[in-house]
Write a structure and sequence with these properties.
- This protein is α/β, with parallel strands linked by helices.
- It has a domain of 164 residues: 3-Layer(aba) Sandwich (Rossmann fold), CATH 3.40.50.
- The strands form 2 sheets. A 6-stranded mixed beta sheet has the order 6-7-8-3-9-10, sandwiched between helices. It has a 4-stranded antiparallel beta sheet with strand order 2-1-4-5, with helices on one face.
- The longest helix has 18 residues.
- It is globular, with a radius of gyration of 17 Å.
């Protein structure tokens, strides 16, 4: 993967972002004064152990939560100062998630899960791919009518990836997407994400504790105790 080199406004950016949970003596700082910018087409691994703040940083970048301090911007416009409904509209317009668990709608088929996500993508242009075509891209053309309970863990996660891609997002946020999978299945899922990134050109931020997963990204941002400790560009 080549490194994005652009002077344009970052796609998503955090500046001096902190997230604090609780009050008084029970306060816990999940993020502390974090700066991060993600360019269009970038791939960034947020790497660190459990509790380092990487998942919280993904949620802040994607507008799922508002920071306690600092600023988050999307396309140069404030995101962190919006109310929850406005942040939701911003997410629908360009941000998609793949979580550790596939979280598919249990009574929808694989194709219906993907099509439902495409339908909810507000303000998007004419879809580049149909739900059936996206399932073919992730190697599940023969599983279109299968319910989630009829799919393996790896297959469910591939449906979740197709569902995220169906939203025509500019930024794909992946939170430990192979955490529940065995090594071989996890590698196939990561290969699928890489192939879709190469085909569609979205920016990718992936939270992981696995050094081999992190090694796939253009940049690795190390976190510990809520702080960015290292940032490395990879060849």
């Amino acid at each position: 993967m080549s490194i994005a080199t652009t002077l344009a406004t970052p796609l998503a950016a955090c500046r001096d972002v902190s997230v604090v949970y609780g009050e008084g003596d029970a306060q816990v700082a999940a993020l502390r004064d974090v700066d991060l910018a993600i360019e269009a087409g970038d791939t960034v691994a947020l790497w660190g152990p459990s509790g380092s703040g990487k998942t919280t940083l993904l949620h802040v970048l994607g507008g799922l939560i508002a920071p306690s301090g600092g600023e988050v911007r999307w396309h140069g416009e404030p995101l962190s100062t919006l109310d929850a409904a406005a942040r939701g509209r911003a997410r629908a317009a360009g941000i998609a998630y793949v979580f550790q668990g596939a979280n598919l709608l249990p009574y929808f088929t694989a194709e219906e899960n993907v099509a439902f996500a495409a339908h909810r993508a507000e303000g998007s242009s004419e879809p580049r791919f149909t739900a059936a075509e996206l399932l073919e891209l992730v190697g599940l053309a023969g599983k279109r009518e299968a319910l989630p309970a009829e799919l393996s863990g790896g297959e469910r996660q591939r449906v979740a990836i197709a569902r995220a891609v169906a939203q025509q997002a500019e930024l794909l946020l992946c939170d430990e997407p192979t955490g529940h999978l065995d090594s071989d299945t996890g590698t196939r899922v990561l290969d699928m994400i890489d192939a879709l990134w190469d085909e569609l050109g979205f920016a990718l931020a992936i939270a992981t504790h696995d050094v081999d997963v992190a090694a796939r990204a253009q940049r690795v941002v190390g976190l510990a105790e809520g702080r960015v400790t290292t940032e490395e560009t990879q060849p």
